Amino acid sequence: MHNALESAFLGIDAIGLVFYSKSPRYVEVETALEIVNALPPFISRVGLFVNADSSFIDEVLCEVPLDTLQFHGDESPLECAQYTMPFIKALRVNSETNIVKLAGDYHQASGLLLDSANGEAFGGTGNSFDWNLAKLKIDLPIILAGGLNPATVAEAISQVNPYAVDVSSGVESSKGIKDIAKIKQFVNSVK
Predict the structure, then answer these.
(1) Per the structure, how many domains does the chain have?
(2) What is the CATH number of the domain that holds 19?
(3) pLDDT tens digits along 119-162
(4) By the 8 A CB rule, do 181 and 30 touch?
(5) Residue 62 C-beta-side C-alpha neighbours within 13 Å
(6) What is the distance between the alpha carbons of residues 47 and 43, in angstroms, rounded to a whole number?
(7) I want to staple 79 with a disulfide (CB 3.0 to 4.6 A). Which of 68, 75, 127, 166 is the partner?
């Protein structure tokens, strides 16, 4: 938890809380609540879910004050919108992904997070995708993810000009363990 809180003071805009038990970044509801309660003001609290049962999401929402939901699985537009709060839909991008069509399908989203398609993995793989696939005009903000780290993020921003960037494994010392020095380098590269 210490790294999550220290990260909040480095100029980040949002913190992601992973409620997907198969992820090395998974947090229990109690830990997520501790993190959220210790955050400074104006840091957006994002809850990340992968094909979660709606009763589990409801349980998390009753316990943890989140600002935005982020759906990384196969959730339909209706499933994402049912919580009547801002949501981000993550897409696993490869050359066959029709981002324009999916932007229309998920038009109620606050943004689309474009991540690498890596088999059955739902993000956090450390792999990037062809950023040329993200150079398009859609009516939703693009959040770029997948393989970003302090060495790649400036070039990614230059090529894609996304609304925001999302990083996880690219600022870790080992799976699930954030490295403050890497986070500082990443933030400096973004600026």
Answers:
(1) 1
(2) 3.20.20.70
(3) 565 555 566 778 878 888 889 999 999 889 899 999 999 989 99
(4) no
(5) 6
(6) 13
(7) 75
